[in-house]
Amino acid sequence: MKGKEKKKENRSGYKHFWSLTLFSIALVLGLWIWNWQTLNDVGLNERGTHGDMFGAVNAIFSGLAFAGIIISLYLQRIDLKNQMEQLELNYEEVQQTNREFKIQNDTLQIQKFENQYYKMIDLHKSNVNEIIIPFFDTLDGSNSNRDNKKIEQQTSATILREVTGKKGFVDMVKELEICLKDTKSILLTQEINFDDSIIYEFAYKIFFFGVHSEFSTSGNIPAPIQKEIKKFIAGKQKKYKDNLISGAKQEINTRYVPFQGHESRLGHYFRHLFQTVKYVVMQETIGLLEYGHTRQYLRVLRAQLSNSEQLLLYYNYCCGPGMNWDRLGNKGFQFLTKYRMIHNMPVDRVKVVENPRHHFKDYICNHCTEEDELFEWGDKKEELKCNE
Q1: Contact assessment for residue 320 and residue 312, using Cβ atoms and an 8 Å cutoff
Q2: Within this chain, do residues 319 and 375 fall inside the same structural domain, yes or no?
């Protein structure tokens, strides 16, 4: 429609052309006829004199010639204007074509991103399903004899069972909380004051590598104190095994013998989860997605995480290995806050590390609203005293 309007305007630029042309021809012919009729009955001698009287006519013709030049310039001006308008139309068409091409390209890029993203989600599900923690149980279930197959051999009265998938995270959270609690309680009795980050890091290593692993060490805690902590936790492990044999009630409520390490289960799980979130956020960085769309895609991923998984993710972040998930790290990522990856975590259950509401107080006070809170269980801004 716009192009037709432009063409109509171009034609209207010539609306005075024919009137000017016809007027000029009529004027010239009229003067010539009048001059011929006037001199037709005049003698030859008088015609020269009479012709001098019509010198003005010559001036008129000269003026008409000048007028013709003006008309030519006027027509050239119209042509130039039409050419400019045509160039503008061509430019707009090129721009429109470029916009359509960009939309098509963006659509293809989004399709490519979604294909890769949902493959990564499928891999995440596979990683969860591959988390298997074996233990032994009685055949009749009357006297639960839970143990890892590394500890005892199967007998005719027992059967090998497995804690698999998301159920494993429930018990792993309990185990890590015991490591954190016991490590902290022992270090607080020492004369040396240790930062929480040092305490959390050492406790997490015991949980991750196992209490008897050579990798469960700290460069910031004296070796004798490390030995004391590991001896205390190893004693709890032994007591757990003894209670399996005697049938006594367990102090540690896990379905498997604790403190044997989960490196083979959790290492690739956290790495892949981190790379999946980073991959989605990167699409926003390069301009393919807007922030709202990024949040929507990550909601799909977060929906795959149980509350215990999100809680273990927060512990992983606080204890050091996963510090780059948010402000503790040096990468500048805000995966836990800006992108709400622990939104469904049971916040009030966190006792052994800094409460997440207080840890992320600045973000909650400056960026969160009642319609978009950081935690599903509420941010409780009144308790944080954001206005003070």
Answers
A1: no
A2: yes
